[in-house]
Amino acid sequence: MRLAWTTDIHLNHVQMPAWDQWLAQVAAARPDAVLITGDISESDDVIFQLRRIAESIPTPIYFVLGNHDFYFSSIAATRQRVSALARDVDSLCYLSDCGPIELSPTHFLVGEDGWGDATEGDYENSMVRLNDFATIKDFTRVDPIDWPAMLRGQGAESAQRLQDKLAVVPAQAREILVATHVPPFREACWYEGKTTDDHWAPFFVCGQVGKVLRDYARQNPGVQLTVICGHTHHGGTAEMLPNLVVHTAAADYGIPKLDRVLEI
Ligand SMILES: [Fe+2]
Ligand SMILES: [Fe+2]
Known about the structure:
The protein has one domain: Metallo-dependent phosphatases (Purple Acid Phosphatase, chain A, domain 2, 4-Layer Sandwich). The protein contains 8 helices and 13 strands. The chain has helices at 16-28, 46-56, 75-88, 132-135, 137-140, 147-167, 201-204, 207-219; strands at residues 2-6, 33-37, 61-64, 92-94, 101-104, 107-112, 175-180, 190-191, 194-195, 224-229, 236-241, 244-248, 258-263. The protein starts with a strand and ends with a strand. The mean pLDDT is 97. One fe (ii) ion is lined by residues 8, 10, 39, 66, 68, 231, 233, 251. The site of one fe (ii) ion (FE2) has 8 residues, from loops.
């Protein structure tokens, strides 16, 4: 099975020729399915873009959402609209709203959006404040003093949902592919070949998802966990444990691209 992986395509920034080029790259990979690890567009456009992708690519499309997909709406409302769409369009599968997907009798796919959850780095002394706080209604309608607790809350919810999914992966699993938007470890949070510092880590690492993954890998040494993510727009690979590897893919605004083909 060939899975074409692409991330942070930010289609609201993409002109027609670049869209066509992206589509041609995906088609040339002859995939059996496509995987998108979030930041597909923004909330007022993401439904349109997902429909357009489903109409243009004849394979199943597995995806999670990234922080940009919620811009100009709320997290819950966007997830609800996207879940409804994915239930309506056969080829679209919103992994955050699905249990484990069987890719083969021994290979499974699970996914979860994730969130930069302020559990890594130094939120209080960080100079970084993402556009998320000015564009996602969950943040704009509360006092900034509540933001770090909200980030931790989003991370906790993602971690719990992921834990629930991993718990029901069948016992015959030998490899689990985990698709998420936010790198789950500092070591997987790349910027120009280096890993993140304390200023960026609160917003670019989902530490609670990382803890779930690490615990699962330790408790299941016979299962290989391969995690794919985006969000930082810079690529790299981190081997956290012998059976837990995280690939983070690079991305550029306006030039969506196929990152790689994963062979199962
Ligand atoms: Fe992005
Ligand atoms: Fe992102």
